[in-house]
Amino acid sequence: MNRNGPFALAFHALFVVFMLAPIAIVCVVAFTPLGYLSVPTTEWSLRWFRAIARYPEFVEAFRASLVLGALSSSVTIALAVPAALALAPGEARAREAFTALFMSPLMIPHVVLGIAFLRFFTEVGLGGTFAGLVLAHIVIVFPFALRLVLAGAVGMDRALEDAAVSLGASTLTVFRRVTLPLLLPAVASGWALAFIQSFDEVTMTVFIASPGASTLPVRMFLYIQDNIDPLVTSVSAAVIAVTVVFLVVLDRLFGLERLLAGGGRD
Q1: Taking Cα atoms as reference points, which of 63, 68, 58 lies closest to residue 199?
Q2: What is the per-residue burial (b if ≥16 Cβ within 10 Å, else e) of 182-191?
Q3: Is 192 part of any domain?
Q4: Along the chain (266 residues), what's the average pLDDT of each consecutive run of 10 residues?
Q5: Angle, to 10 degrees, between the axis of helix 180-200 and the axis of helix 56-87?
Q6: Collapsing DSSP states into helix, strand and coil, what is residue 55?
Q7: Is 0.85 topped by the overall pTM?
Q8: N or C: which end of the chain has fewer CB within 10 A?
Q9: Domain with 140 in it
């Protein structure tokens, strides 16, 4: 059995520290009692967490981000599953060509997409609407979901579907009882990645979001343009805490390994 040597373990440890250090610093700064960004050394305070209640626009923006992420990722998965099932059985060359077409939004800078969507939605009467925001997010998160679902569809054993058909199962029954359970880890991973990308999107959303329908990243971006205080760090820490609690509950109920990687729980 191969074991990682000291150098590999040290490299992995440094990599983990490098990834988690910014998150840890943001969470620590959120507990400062001072009115400026600083690391608390002698006193810890919930001052800036209580201050969130004085800015209901952050709460509304958080709710809008959740709804936007859930809608865009759900519609994206509903489109990615049939697209992946249609592309998976095809020849590799044709599959790569269509996959490149569907991945093309990744090659366009989000600033360019934001300007293009702003002009297009203004022309068709969707400028500043929540529906336009959902449509724009579907376009930018679709490649992420399709890539994961397509990988699951390509690796799926098609003989199981043929066996179900030979036993008299209808097309809908085969999809519901055979295909979808086999694709569930890829679908769950694609939905989660699409949701994260939608929730975190700010560059394009700045151009098309109306003042009454701003997402949380946009609201935070606009706030730090005029204010330099730890309120944004407390909002970030609260979002991180909610995310951690959600992942823990999800792991207890279903198991993250089973849901995202298809492994069974012990």
Answers
A1: 68
A2: bbebbbbbbb
A3: yes
A4: 74 91 91 86 87 87 91 94 85 78 89 92 88 93 91 82 84 86 86 89 89 84 86 90 82 67 48
A5: 140
A6: coil
A7: no
A8: N
A9: 59-234
Spatial distance between the Cα atoms of 158 and 165, rounded to a whole number of angstroms: 11
Q: Are 263 and 257 in contact (CB under 8 A)?
A: yes
SS3 content of the chain, % helix, strand, coil (to 5): 75, 0, 25
Inside any domain, residue 150 = yes
> Which candidate, 103, 110, 78, 74, places its Cα nearest to that of 192?
74
DSSP, collapsed to helix, strand or coil, labels residue 74 as helix
120 in a domain, yes or no? Answer: yes
Q: Which of 133, 124, 141 is nearest to 209 (CA)?
A: 133
For residue 70, what are its two tokens? 């859930």
Neighbour-count burial of 161, counting CB atoms closer than 10 A to its CB (0-12 exposed, 13-18 middle, 19+ buried): middle
Residue 249 lies in a domain: no
C-alpha closest to that of 198 among 57, 66, 47: 66
Long-range contacts of 220-227 (CB under 8 A, 24+ apart): 220/58
- The Cα 202–Cα 183 span in angstroms is 30
Q: Which of 195, 241, 238 is nearest to 220 (CA)?
A: 238
What's the structural domain count of the chain?
A: 1
